Amino acid sequence: MNEPIQFVIDSLWYQLDAAKELILITLGGVLFAVLGNQQGWKNEIRRLHPSSLRINLIVYIVDILIVAVPVSMLVRLIYQVLSSHGLILFSTVLDVWPVWIVGLLCVATGDFIGYWRHRFEHSPLLWSAHSLHHSDEEMTWFTLFRFHPLNRVSTAAIDYGALFLLGFPLWAIAFAGSVRHFYGMFVHINRPWTLGFLGWILVSPAMHRWHHVRAGPGMFSNYATVFSLFDRMFGTIYAPGPCHDRLGVEGVNQDEYVSQMLLPIARIWRMMGSLKVPGLRARVGKN
């Protein structure tokens, strides 16, 4: 099929899926509210702060209309390149294992990869793009969708690229992505839940909320999405209990969309200006 036509079809299908997903996550958010407190959906509606909700909706709509299809095409390209060069490592081994083991292993492996990718996003190199996600001062389940396009690209390239390389079948990667996606919604809800003894194995909403604090030790902790075991193994766990500290990012206005979009671009521009390439610094400095 002609590439431009395929691009349009992919875009339309993604937008339809995104619309269905938005309905699903809205119902899920209300369900979490009903389970979590006596006021139910009314309290959950109040927690969707107008300014926070506005930016989250803008990011979500831009993702649906502009970002998602190119990212999905990038993922497809990564898979094709790895396949064509024989860089799929363990597919023959995984093909003979029971389906349920492969599925669970893919979820755990994806979360392990995501743990280290998330730590990388908190490095100076990628933080300017990842900070958009952290700038939400009224974190709810909808905060999960608050990602800069460059952050979406790095996430897709690292997470999917690594799983493709390891040889997991496409169905298992899709399954793991769905599990981690919806569990990611769960850990972003505005609830003080610690999950009790399960919190020793799984990430809880309280644990992840500490990761989003504006200041304090939680800022550099709790990078896993599903399994808190990874944070415990690598010494980045911080889960003293429910979190009531202020959320957000110092020096970033959560209500400004354009400035947050330009933040990583400005950083890249400055990095280009500091490169010791003959003539490059002078040209960047003049613009």
UniProtKB/TrEMBL annotation:
The chain crosses the membrane at residues 12-36, 57-79, 99-116, 156-176, 182-203. GO terms for molecular function: glyceryl-ether monooxygenase activity; iron ion binding. It comes from the Bacteria. This is Sterol desaturase family protein. Residues 104-236 form the Fatty acid hydroxylase domain. The keyword Metal-binding does not apply. It comes from Variovorax paradoxus. One of its GO terms (cellular component) is membrane. Keywords: Lipid metabolism, Membrane, Oxidoreductase, Transmembrane, Transmembrane helix. Its main location: membrane. The keyword Membrane applies. GO terms for biological process: lipid biosynthetic process; membrane lipid metabolic process. It is found in: Endomembrane system. It is a multi-pass membrane protein. InterPro entries: Fatty_acid_hydroxylase, Sterol_desaturase/TMEM195.
